[in-house]
From TrEMBL:
The chain crosses the membrane at residues 16-35, 41-66. Residues 118-351 form the Endonuclease/exonuclease/phosphatase domain. It comes from Kitasatospora purpeofusca. It holds the Pfam family Exo_endo_phos. The keyword Nuclease applies. This is Endonuclease/exonuclease/phosphatase family protein. Keywords: Endonuclease, Hydrolase, Membrane, Nuclease, Transmembrane, Transmembrane helix. InterPro entries: Endo/exonu/phosph_ase_sf, Endo/exonuclease/phosphatase. The keyword Hydrolase applies. GO terms for molecular function: endonuclease activity.
Amino acid sequence: MDPDSVSPRSRHSTGVRLLVAATALWAAFLALDLLANGRWWFWLIPGLAPPLLFLAVPVTLLALAWTLPAAGSGLRRWLVPTAVLLLVAALPRTGLNWSAPAPGSAAAPAGPGIRVFSWNTEYWDTTDDPDAFYRFLHAQDADVYLLQEYLAWVRGTHTQIDELDRIRREFPGYQVVAAGELVTLSRFPVLATPAVGPAVAADAPWSEVFTRRKVLRTDLDVRGRAVSFYNVHIPVQVDTRESVFGRAFYRVVREADAARREQFAALERDTAANSRPLLVAGDFNTSPAMGDLDRLRARLHDARAASGDLYPGSWGGILGADWWRLDWAFTNDGAAVDHYAFVDDRGMSDHRGQQLRISLPHRGQDRCRWHVLESWCARHPRHP
């Protein structure tokens, strides 16, 4: 058939049918996401999508529905509110930072701050100029460093490295705590290192510690107060070396889901039982589009409230932008984040570093719990 012979009315009808179908498909996807996200191992795969997709799709549907001609006004009265509802339902998965117009902590700074730097180093300094690597760390001038991937990639496998002597030389006066691939450096005295997660024997080989210790808790004496710092690296959910058409790919996803759940559950239990001020930070391999962090985010305070970025991203590097936030930082009511930013990794990692300044409100100082009001609370602190 000659395309010119197709009537405008026929083309319009086809377009409307496609719009209705797209709206229905997106509604079905969101319904499945509500039911399966964070609950079904397979949903880790759709969860790999850029979180901004949850904004782009409903906004596009809304724009198309709004521009329907007068002949389709009856349908428009149905499609427009539907698209608005789908947009509202998807907003929590977009990763947008609603505090960006007026970033601030959820409590007024109290006393000298604690500078923290958390970073997935991507195989430590084994793929970089070691001197440049350590210069970058020194430039952060942090009181506490929470570093992940203290290891190397050799012949297709994660391999132990031994640089503790150099670390101590590079950071004199710091306490060094290492477990598997996790290293915590502190200017403050170490009080304890309680185990979090699956039990690992003291004499277990490094490979077992690497596999099972994905949370390193270090309790520090911060100017006379005990504060807990959790250094986190949740296992990645996919193996990109496997074909999506092979069984091995899905076996890896299912096994990764079990390992991730075990680590998340342990972290949630430990932080819930910990009455001390605490900071949880690291590479969670979890984007805002994934439900794995929902329980932790519901109980702790996301540091992004102190960020000025409307869309904080830490990983991706596609078209000059980081489209995924995989690195997170949280505090409880005992600690407040006064500054939070992602810093350029200078080509030494596929993750940007998290730079934080936290303060410890005075005992008894009220802390606003509602995330949507965190910026307001920072400017209008209440005192007992």
